[in-house]
Amino acid sequence: MNLSKISLEFELNLTEIRKLNNMYFRRLCKEKVTFFLILILFYIIFFNFFTLKTEDDLIEWELQNLVLIILFITFYCFSVNAICNVILELISKLVLYTDFIGKYKLNFAASNIYVQAPLGTFTYKWCQIEKAVLTKDFFFLYIKDDSHIISISNHTSDGRNMKELITFVESNRVNIIKV
């Protein structure tokens, strides 16, 4: 086997999916909700701008938008976390269905690591891995750029080739700390 080339795909189990949702997708969900709310805000502001008829309306429009932006920021601060919690709660209920579980995967290629899920995909290069830790139950890959941790269970029945992954990481990428 050529250790400089690797192509592995692991489907995640429930424990790994829950860890992944808490770490990665809470932030991703918050970003998507924020983008959607800002898009609505800009739509309202520009829609109101095109209804202006006189210059006096411009001052009134500016004041209305100032109040609207202040209300938006207040609403945003109190609601974005609640909206994200509701979305993640729905996803945690959907995770119980086997069709949904199969959409969570880790792909390991020679140059990249892909974390795939229904909410989005994260791609990391192997050079972003700061350290790797192997314990009795899990194999952890620490990512230095955004402080995320990829955790892979060592005890699964889905035929994961953990030895190949560990050998690849140890011989080509990072020294593995064994605990």
Write a brief caption for the model.
The chain is an alpha+beta fold. 51% of the residues lie in helices and 23% in strands.
Which regions contain 5 or more consecutive residues with pLDDT less than 50?
Answer: none
What's the CATH class of the largest domain, please?
Mainly Beta
Report the count of strand segments.
8
Number of helices: 4
Choose one word for the global shape. Answer: elongated
> CATH fold name of the largest domain, please?
PH-domain like
What string, H for helix and E for strand, traces the elements in order? EHHHEEEEEEHE
- What would you call the structural class? alpha+beta
Largest sheet: 4 strands, antiparallel
Q: What is the gyration radius calculated from CA atoms?
A: 23 Å
Provide a descriptive summary of the structure in words.
By secondary structure, the chain is of the alpha+beta class. The chain has 2 domains: 7-11 and 104-178, PH-domain like, CATH 2.30.29; 27-94, no CATH class. Helix content is 51%, strand content 23%. It is built from 4 helices and 8 strands. The chain has a 4-stranded antiparallel β-sheet, with no helix packed on it. It has a 4-stranded mixed β-sheet with strand order 7-6-5-8. The longest helix has 40 residues, at 55-94. The protein is elongated and about 70 Å long.
